[in-house]
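In the laboratory, one determines a bound structure by crystallizing the protein with its ligand and collecting diffraction data. In a computational setting the workflow is compressed into a single prediction: the sequence and the ligand go in, and a structural description comes out. We illustrate the idea with magnesium ion.
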Amino acid sequence: MRWTRSLITTLRDDPQEAEIDSHKLMLRAAMIRKLSGGLYTFLPLGLRALHKVERIVREEMDRAGALEILMPALQPTELWEQSGRLAAMGPNMFKLKDRAERTLALGPTHEEVVTDLLAREVNSYRQLPCTVYQIQTKFRDEIRPRFGLMRAKEFIMKDAYSFDVSLEAADASYQAMYDAYVRIFKRCGLRTKPVEADTGDIGGKWSHEFMVMAEAGEDGIVECPACAYAANQERAERRVPSPAMPATVVASALVREIPTPGARTIEQVAAFLKCPPAHLIKTLIYLADGKPLAALVAGDREVNEHKLKRALGCKRMELADDATVRKVTTAPVGFAGPVGLALPIYADFGLRGAMDRFTGANKADTHVAHVDLSRDVKITEFLDLSIVGAGDTCPRCDGTLRVARGIEVGHVFKLGTKYSEAFQAKVLNEKGQAETLVMGCYGIGVTRTLQAVIEQSRDKDGIVWPVSVAPYTVALLLLDPKDAAVTAAAEKLAQELEALGIDVLLDDREERPGVKFKDADLIGLPYRVVAGAKSLAKGGVEVKSRTSKESLLVPADQAAAKIAELVAAARQTLS
Ligand code: ATP
Ligand code: MG
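The predicted complex, in structure-token form:
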């Protein structure tokens, strides 16, 4: 491809709209352009790299025995009523009406459609195991689309779904997809870490996310340096020592009200009472599917809404609005407390045995002291409710946990029978009895993966593409496009490379060498070859990999073979 015919308009400066490096680089390297918030056009350079990622995904899905299908992006919302997920998806799902006033959704995911499909297509255990996949555009009305392709409203996902006749067979299907994911990300040149994950609205029992560790990641990853434990912070657990029972039970002082004028937040109250935040009990009022409840954690911890939601098995979990808080606590916001509160009360298990604590008094400008949870509060249940952070104890060993940032590029779930029950997806087993299918679902954010490659592989000058997904493999800089002999040598080399299956971007622009070098670094193709009057006079072309400082002078007629050798070695490391 000749640069002059390629629609590559690089940008010298960082665009205002971009916050993280990979987003800036994709815009500067003319890979994508913004249409509006969360919506992007792929320019030719970006689309080439995207197609290479898609090809790797496809090859590994096929190798794992999955069958490619293509389902409609438009889905009747009745299917979502049937699975009971319409409410849970809420405003995240784009909905529209057709001319007959039927409501349709633009698919954010395809569990419903695919289960409905397979329920009709399979009827015997002989057709199983069966895993189907598609690579398709998904739509989600994200609250905060940002970071370019990382969190978009429209993005490309590879979604796969497995169907099995037993739990054991489903485990094998899950493992096959897990292994395929390991290969896919390795081939894309990505270093990923599989972590235990929350199952969210998709439902199901067990899941792993594949994380690209990066500062710009939106997910917190809790990991133990002493053992292999790694989990998304949404799910992460911690070990809490069971409270030591005092040898003799000392009766603590009785609950007493203390005026705390204007002190509402934990910090304000702790400062006012001159005590550490951990001596306070934080009381938050939530609505679980619309019903109020209180969640208690120590003053120095935060409630993990995902864990609360999962523990209670509800569809929606949200902080109660001010009016509800005032109604159920009979006090303004900031003074809620569990003593005498007529609501279901769930306490973090770190609060077991908590005595002599401060908490809100359900009365304006007032807190209570000397609260003994077992004596003064009717706890509905102790649960694992708080966000786990750095310094907490590993749930598997005695290690001290730490927290890092990650980008979720893939997700594998064991779904169980949630959808197959809703859609009556059954087959006859060997004995002729009807058996409900056991499912798994497996997503890869294809467009997010592409950007994650850049986030993980870049330097101060630009992108550093792994050879497997680079839009082109070689940037061939023709430094003297007006010189017929140099042009002929460069064009010949380009043809020889193409004949060896190596794609080349020939920079034939009438630009200064400095501009071409800068653009080559920015676009970041794995190999740069310089063909100029000077280099040819010295005996050949200069070959350099994007990651090395030194270039190699290679006779023009040997250059193609030499580059092919380098490319083959680089590909080897990614296979
Ligand atoms: P997130 O937690 O980042 O919102 P999710 O858990 O909702 O993602 P899944 O339903 O598991 O996402 O979707 C499968 C994959 O699709 C994710 O692992 C991610 O790589 C990708 N993905 C999800 N939402 C987006 C988005 N808004 N833009 C780009 N890719 C996305
Ligand atoms: Mg996910």
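Residues 15-236+403-455 form a domain with the BirA Bifunctional Protein; domain 2 fold (CATH 3.30.930.10). Keep in mind that any predicted model is a hypothesis to be tested, not a measurement.
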